[in-house]
Amino acid sequence: MKIAPSILSADFANLERDIVKVDQAGADYIHVDVMDGQFVPNITLGPNIVSAIRPVTELTLDVHLMIVEPERFIDDFAQAGADIITVHQESTVHLHRTLQMIKKAGAKAGIVINPGTPVSAIEEVLHLADLVLIMTVNPGFGGQSFIKECLKKVTQLAELRREHQYTYEIEVDGGVADDTAAACVEAGADVLVAGSYVYNSENVAERINRLREAVK
Ligand SMILES: O=C(CO)[C@@H](O)[C@H](O)COP(=O)(O)O
Ligand SMILES: [Fe+2]
């Protein structure tokens, strides 16, 4: 099981310090939430911040795009140093082409679906996915409550992967904490994104360890 702390809940005035902290604490990915104020009602950061943090860590930069028409910015995020670029099914008309663009730009291609979107909406493109992200909150903000009904989609994705020998990792994002992590992994999740749970603490290493303990 991999842990991807979300820097949405980090101190933006001390981003380098907060990334180094989770890196040293044994995080696997750094999850970067990009919001445009249109696809979601919040604005965060763009490719310039991704290039600024690229030299700070060798960990995988897992970039979650919550923007309309993400195809406009794929090359910019890939050049900025994103390792995984994940786009919402709901945000792009030509999801198949957008995934191809991500691969052509040299990054791994991720697909993400909102709580209200079924797995059937992405079944035709799962063979192109390196990662599938199931939102367990409605995207836009950290610190929201986990929507447990979304976990059945994690199980569906694990079954489809087995059936078709797909190779994607399954990631969950939203409301992941020590009381929800085990259910995510039991359902079939490989990667847990955690923002407020990790960063709303003086001791991020203890939080990461508690997540690992919770899923044992
Ligand atoms: O994509 C998002 C929110 O839209 C997430 O990555 C959040 O950053 C998760 O925050 P927590 O629910 O873990 O506080
Ligand atoms: Fe996210």
UniProtKB/TrEMBL annotation:
- Which cofactors? a divalent metal cation; Mn(2+); Zn(2+); Fe(2+)
Q: Which GO terms describe its molecular function?
A: D-ribulose-phosphate 3-epimerase activity; metal ion binding
Q: Name one GO biological process term.
A: pentose-phosphate shunt
Q: What does the record give as its pathway?
A: Carbohydrate degradation
* Record-linked InterPro entries: Aldolase_TIM, Ribul_P_3_epim, Ribul_P_3_epim-like, RibuloseP-bd_barrel
Might you give the EC number(s) for this enzyme?
5.1.3.1
Q: Which PROSITE patterns match?
A: RIBUL_P_3_EPIMER_1, RIBUL_P_3_EPIMER_2
User: One matching Pfam family, short form?
Assistant: Ribul_P_3_epim
UniProt: a divalent metal cation binding residues:
31, 33, 64, 173
A GO CC annotation recorded here is:
cytoplasm
The cofactor binding remark recorded in the entry reads: Binds 1 divalent metal cation per subunit.
Q: What reaction gets catalysed by this protein?
A: D-ribulose 5-phosphate = D-xylulose 5-phosphate
Class of the enzyme per the UniProt entry, highest EC level: isomerase
Binding residues for substrate: 6, 64, 140-143, 173-175, 195-196
The family database entries (PANTHER family) matched by this protein are listed as: RIBULOSE-5-PHOSPHATE-3-EPIMERASE
Which NCBIfam families does its entry note? Answer: PRK05581.1-4, rpe
What role does this protein play? Catalyzes the reversible epimerization of D-ribulose 5-phosphate to D-xylulose 5-phosphate.
Q: Which family does it belong to?
A: Belongs to the ribulose-phosphate 3-epimerase family.
| Name of the protein described by the UniProt record | Ribulose-phosphate 3-epimerase
Gene designation: rpe
